[in-house]
TRAP transporter small permease protein (Sulfitobacter brevis), 189 residues
Amino acid sequence: MIRLARGYINTIDAINYRLGRIVMYGIFVLMGILLWSSISKTFFLPALWTLEVAQFTMVAYYILGGPYSLQLGSNVRMDLLYGEWSLRRKAWTDVITVLFLIFYLGVMVYGAIGSTAYSLGYWGTEPISFFAGLITGTEEIGRLETSPSVWRPWMWPIKTIMIIGLFLMLLQCVSELFKDLLLLKGEPV
């Protein structure tokens, strides 16, 4: 069991580390989009797409970088009491709080799946069966949801990125749970 937990930790940490190292350069993409937005508004006709693309880029940057941030311990924490505790007490606290986070992220993933199904034109109440039907060919994509802005981009690409990011965050939380449990057992992580 310990070997399996270590394998899971190594795999998920490697995936989120590599993805996080790539995604962190998204800030430069965002800066480029906003720079072009400023230039086009100052010297040319304003580009209609820049604000929404900047928002989508920021969402992807934030949501795909979250697991990397959690892995490195860069997330915001209330250190008023936590900073003075022993490693064992911190691990017990983290085990309890990460279980709440795993539940919350599970609800968020399910909601994101439903929202993405809606953006693909599904109006029913079973979004997971809709995606299974897309794979098997029993379901079809309906009228695609678009943004209410003037540019009107499709919403499914950013919603798909949100599913991926939330799912990777969920996997990283399970990895952090395993790390804390190994620490409590006295095993090296």
